[in-house]
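User: Hand in any protein.

Assistant:
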Amino acid sequence: MVSLRFLLCFLFVSSVYATIVSHDGRAITIDGHRRVLLSGSIHYPRSTPEMWPDLIKKGKEGSLDAIETYVFWNAHEPTRRQYDFSGKLDLIRFLKTIQDEGLYGVLRIGPYACAEWNYGGFPVWLHNMPGMVFRTTNKAFMDEMQNFTTMIVDMVKKENLFASQGGPIILAQIENEYGNVMGPYGESGKSYIKWCANMAQSLNVGVPWIMCQQNDAPQPMLNTCNGFYCDDFVPNNPNTPKMWTENWTGWFKQWGGKNPHRTTEDVAFSVARFFQRGGTFNNYYMYHGGTNFDRTAGGPYITTSYDYDAPLDEYGNLNQPKYGHLKQLHDVLHSMEKILTYGNISTIDFGNSASATIYRTKEGSNCFFGNGNENSDATISFQGESYVVPAWSVTILPDCKNEAYNTAKITTQTSMMVKKPNEAEDTPSTLKWSWRPENMDNFLLKGKGESTQTQLFDQKVVTNDQSDYLWYMTTVKFKKRDPFLGKNMSLRVNSTAHVLHAFVNGKHIGNQYAENGKFNYIFEKDVKFKSGRNVIALLSITVGLANYGAFFESKPAGITGPISITERNVDETIVKDLSAHKWSYKTGLNGFENQLFRTESTSKWSVESVPFNRTMTWYKATFKAPLGNDPVVVDLLGLGKGTAWVNGNNIGRYWPAFISSENGCAAKCNYRGPYHAEKCLTNCGEPTQR
């Protein structure tokens, strides 16, 4: 009996192969071997489980070593202590898909994400807790953050997914880019970061923890760099390897903006120069950007598309030549891994921003020839040979003799995405639409809501972010001969609603939306009030909550006032402040509550006289699925602003009526010189997203 027990125990332990992940000043070390690591960001909720195997396989075929993802707190805990890990929120399934493909994982728990995600990934119920302040030494915040972080770690441990348990995850991240904004938090910010480090370390995940953009990251946290370029980054500890957690492959889009592009040559240049100068871990943000389904886009005004000009486009296609040119670079870097991570380093400065870096061991040498000059090519003489290095490029010579790769010399064929019409059998050339109006009588004519207060509240407080829509309603009574009741009256609203619709006595008097990044504006319209009871109904619409900055949680949304009625006559202007009136609130629209978007909805729809340019209207059509297996897109040009569903699935917000400005685009893009988000723009004078 004794020997049998010993045998069973031995077999059980040997079935899990633990990977030892450590580090020194040169590199991340996996099972005793220093590694050159190429990683790519793929956020699981921005695609679907059906897409994950293909996306991750393409990452591996692109010569990535690892896949990185954030964990989005508000998606997983939309209501306090009620969790959702279903469908595209199945984090464990995503991590196991990475494992199945034989890749490593980088788990950025945060739980602050930024990521142009709604509210930076924080749930709005958190903001509404008494005495709450985010990301500082606030006990309520720290308790909730620790609860969620611990829960995620425990879930991952239960499935043996950390490398220390034989799983794929080699790195974990706590907090995110806090160093960029910590100044206003003062000493509390410094204390908070120390608390984050101690809390993370106490979870015993068995792999290193990283903190990006945190120069004062406490040991043993590894501080890392984010940006378009990180070759000049120096870690805060000689035992920390030079790591780049976000190499921005492009940029995000905002409604009213243009399409940003980062050239293939410049992305490759940034990576090669990073490794030339001692880097050993590079993560592309994004490798696949995907789609901000439902209400997940942040901002405000982040688009539904999160394509990011990444190596894999929004639909999962190869974005060529970016994908192929970077794969070639990865292959060259991997071939040099041992010498890059163990070799002695020497540098030759040729002047005029040209240099050579040589990595040398007894087994051989690797060379990088870099030219950071934006305008002129460099001719480098090295070991009796002459090499021409184009402006703003890096040449890699694995044997220090023969050029294997240059970042500016693209040999990969360029791909173009073509949108073809639906060719499914018997599909008409135009869709047949039915429609029905949003039922607003209770709001517009009765001013009836769910709750009543004698003040104006921030939209987040009332809705708990359960909807983009919030009605603010009040009634105003005028006597028949009220001296205030005149001909020159107007309604004036100080608004932080992203979009505002105003109604008086059932009549739509106008709408307004925030422009040019100014989310505080004044809406004012002439109104004819009547004697007796008047109903004012204001519909505030959010288009993604703020996701970045110090104390971003306190940025207002909705209508915080003041709101007033103004009467102007020859002698004077009289102002009637309505801010402290009795206001009635109603979250959402009736059509959402009645789930008109469901395919099995029994609500009555009309096919007669389908209206155009009619606000607050539901439209519905059917189509046959296109033939083949290519991605399907819905072109919503011709619609104004709203939300779209396919087969009951919320595919996100649309706003093709929001046109970008005519100026700022370039027919050609010069890859040379530092990239920034306003460089290489296209799509001027067109809808930001169709």
